[in-house]
Amino acid sequence: MIKMKNVIVIGAGAAGMSAASRAKRLNPSLEVTVLERSNWASFAFCGIPYYVGNIVNGLNDLVFYPPEEFKKRGIDLRFNKEVTEIDVDRKVLRFTDIKTGKEEKMSWDKLVIATGARSKAEKFWPEIKKANNVFYIKHLDSAEAIRNYAKAIGEGKKVVLVGSGYVGLELVENLARLGLKVTIIEAMDQILPKAIDRDLAELVEQELKSKGVNIIKGTPVESFEINGKKAIKVKTPVGYVEGDMFVIGVGIEPNNELAKMAKLSIGNSGGILVDEKTLTSNEDVYAAGDVTEHKDLITKQFIWRPFAQIANKMGHVAGSNIGGMESVFMGSLGTSALKIFDLIVARTGLSKAEASNMGFDAIDASLKSGVKAHYIPGGEKRINIKVVADKKTGKLLGAQAIGPSESVFWRINVIASLLTRNSTVWDLFNSDLGYQPTLNPVWDPLIIASRLLMRTLGEKPI
Amino acid sequence: MIKMKNVIVIGAGAAGMSAASRAKRLNPSLEVTVLERSNWASFAFCGIPYYVGNIVNGLNDLVFYPPEEFKKRGIDLRFNKEVTEIDVDRKVLRFTDIKTGKEEKMSWDKLVIATGARSKAEKFWPEIKKANNVFYIKHLDSAEAIRNYAKAIGEGKKVVLVGSGYVGLELVENLARLGLKVTIIEAMDQILPKAIDRDLAELVEQELKSKGVNIIKGTPVESFEINGKKAIKVKTPVGYVEGDMFVIGVGIEPNNELAKMAKLSIGNSGGILVDEKTLTSNEDVYAAGDVTEHKDLITKQFIWRPFAQIANKMGHVAGSNIGGMESVFMGSLGTSALKIFDLIVARTGLSKAEASNMGFDAIDASLKSGVKAHYIPGGEKRINIKVVADKKTGKLLGAQAIGPSESVFWRINVIASLLTRNSTVWDLFNSDLGYQPTLNPVWDPLIIASRLLMRTLGEKPI
Fold first, then answer.
1. What average pLDDT is seen over chain A?
2. Most-buried pick from A301, A395, B82, B83 (CB within 10 A)?
């Protein structure tokens, strides 16, 4: 067993608690301490919209494991502890108890930085600090605040969502469920600009509009107009938009202050650069989750992807390496998904435009297809799917899909697993997907997509 | 363009019509004739249970394309034509019109044999020929006969299903839907003996029993007792089982008479051996679908897998090669799925026992997991999943899953795509599957399965 004693994990989110649990489990002789600034550990950030919409009743339902569970695992989990200083040469840090103001010092043999991401909302619009009706998601406390405020103002009142990312749109659905009138203001000329192509985004826009949501595109929010303690409208280049409540669903960045203090190598996004073992530029400091950059599996370039499943995996890998079992996280593809009213939206890998920008000779195949056999009830439901490949090599590069079916998500996961294995269009054709008439058509849309791409590439591998 | 004229396709099922359509599309100068013994072309065999259960109204709903569509495509589709003689040296065949008795001769440049599978029921139990209440599925006419008879005898009457394969169990669900009392008699000591492991099969048995279906296992049907034109009971080693109607859901084989006549190489199952181009041992004769054996992607051995999606793919590949575009079908994994009442069952690749028999040092990981985040409604639903790998190399070998969720099917498809790419347990861990709380848990059961397997193998690739 590797000889070492103290492991300190900063941050008790998905990455931090995965790392702490894994390290302690593999090597029970480790003393594992987790320092967390908030009152929450191991909570489901992605569940917040469903808490707001009353789908989830209590905040505790969003906690994967209660603090006692970590105590049982032998992990010293401490809340309200803000780390204020890190000295990587002497391997010591200093932290303050936010409530008591008490300071402590602690030394480590291995450190894990898992400080997550933070909102840039107050940097962009400092005036919102004065308002009590402008929200953005951070910890579970903000979920509580959003839900309470939304319920307090009541049905028919106006909510403005600034931006249109995944979590923001899931909030829209849930705020609408509470009976509020939602307007989305998006700076780019489509919603979900970072996630999907414009033609597919238009289908999401139709769905939102059909559910009574207003959308204002190509319109940045310049400032908030505050009256007393309330924001009453936002200013845009084309005029003002009024609201009773405002939610900022855009602009997060790696929470990298400590990483900077520790002089770790940092990428373009501000995320800590880590290798396959999730080790930073310091050999005794690991980092995992939303505070890091890791490699994209296709482009092999560092990228920032603050997704919960990646944070969990990276935390697990960091914990394994610290606990004495060599483990690797190879990178990610940006596979992500959204449920918005009756639609599922998902993507993985590169869009055609992204692929072209990376130097690929990108081609794509788009189709609209039934999700099951035409003669089965529900067989009339259609999904749109788009698969991107490289014309020179036939290599698959990415896919996007949208439609009223969970299978949208899973078809994208099939492509994701093929992308992970560096596969081609011919591999997709030869993927032996199952067939059952209530579950998919005999020619699954994925296989049809491979056939469409083979029209350009030829049916035999190059 | 390749110079040739006559293409004859024998059999108008999935494989035959895919081949004919593809060849004609790629090379419109070809004269493509399809000779079909029945009255049906391009029909959905797998939809028959749903026709029996009134989910599908008309038989024509089970037809993918009507005969006129093939006429429009320039294909000469001829019904009621039985091929009686094949001379591969002179490249000529002889066929009879079943209705008129008229004989014709026709020569080919390329021949496609797509004669499908046939039931062995009358070989096993010749006495059933006399009975008008013993059924097995062949063409759509048999679907009509089963439905009509089931409706005629009416609710509460007893149906005996002999065997418990996929289509048989789907018939059970649909016969139960019509109000009939179903008893399954299975010769092996579990249901679905060729499809899934016993522990998972027990879950299917529980589901069937909860829906009022009787199951008699480990009990072969020795003979049918016939009274006049009706079978009244079956004889088994442990006694008689009475029924008002009998359905045989077991025992099919490649319909290989013509292949034998053509002296083509034939495998152990009786299926025609084809290469990656779907070419038989004769350079001008292709074969596709249920009448063929093709290679298993893992074991590289020839295997017989009469599945519709494979038939369509093989037909497409045969048609492409005939039409002048080189195309390959690499093989299959036996990915298959069943919907039985509220459960989905799916498998791909090898079971642990099959893998051990093939010489692998097989290990497996089994788990029961939520299908979505625990805090989302429906998050309490559990699925069982089992992933098999090779201990020496970490190579994935197969997976099985069962549960009340479509995601069972898709998770198996993710494994299937990884198997197609010859992947390892570490590749599964690193597959960047998406996460959305209404669609899966943040640690997807597939990724947890990889972690369980890595406990034995180590977390870093060997």
1. 96
2. B83
Chain B residues 299-358 with CB within 8 Å of chain A? 307-310, 312-313, 316-317, 320, 325-339, 344, 346, 348
Write down the ipTM of this complex. 0.96
Task: Select the residue of A61, A328, A376 nearest B375 (Cβ to Cβ).
Answer: A61
Could you tell me if A32 and A25 are in contact, meaning their C-beta atoms sit under 8 angstroms apart? no
C-beta separation of A209 from A398 below 8 A: no
Tokens standing for A170? 């899931």
pLDDT at site A140: 84
Residue B240 three-state SS: strand
Q: What is the mean pLDDT of residues B126-149?
A: 92
- The C-alpha atoms of residue A242 and residue A253 are separated, in whole angstroms, by 28
A window 25-84, beta carbon within 8 A of B: 44, 46-47, 50, 55-56, 61-62, 64
Smallest CA–CA distance from A277 into chain B, residue: B460
Residue B324 has pLDDT above 90, yes or no: yes
Please name the residues in contact with B401: beta carbons below 8 A apart, sequence gap of 6 or more.
B200, B344, B345, B346, B347, B383, B384, B385, B386, B408, B411, B412
pLDDT at B112 over 80: yes
**Is the Cβ pair A417, B406 closer than 8 Å?**
no
Q: What is the mean pLDDT of residues A142-149?
A: 93
What is the model's pLDDT at position A4?
A: 59
Q: How far apart are CA A431 and CA A410, in angstroms?
A: 14
pLDDT band at B4 (very low <50, low <70, confident <90, very high): low
**Nearest-neighbour CA in chain B from A413: distance (Å):** 5
- The model's confidence at residue B408, banded by pLDDT at 50, 70 and 90, is very high
Give the whole-angstrom CA distance, residue B185 versus residue B215.
Answer: 6
Contacts of B347 (CB under 8 A, 6+ apart): B195, B196, B334, B335, B336, B337, B398, B399, B400, B401, B412
Indicate the angle between helix axes A407-420 and A445-457, nearest 10 degrees. 50
**Count H helices, E strands: chain B?**
13, 26
- Fold for A345-457, please state it: Enolase-like; domain 1 (3.30.390)
Residue A101 is among the residues annotated as catalytic for this protein: no
Distance, CA of A404 to CA of A396 (rounded, Å): 25
pLDDT of residue B462: 86
The pLDDT tens digits for B417-445 are 999 999 999 999 999 999 999 999 999 99
Q: Using CA atoms, how far apart are residues B403 and A231, in angstroms rounded to an integer? A: 49
Domain locations along chain B? 6-42+64-116+253-323, 121-250, 342-457
Residue A139 has pLDDT above 80, yes or no: no
Task: Judge whether B184 and B213 are in contact, CB under 8 Å.
Answer: yes
B396 bridge partner residues:
B389
CB A143 within 8 Å of CB A59: yes
Please state which of the four CATH numbers 3.90.650.10, 3.90.1170.40, 1.10.260.40, 3.50.50.60 is assigned to the domain occupying A6-44+62-117+253-323.
3.50.50.60
Mean residue pLDDT of chain B comes to 96
Owner of token pair 């009773």: A244
Q: Which amino acid is at A202?
A: E
Q: Which CATH architecture has domain B121-250?
A: 3-Layer(bba) Sandwich (3.50)
Find where tokens 């066929």 sit.
B95
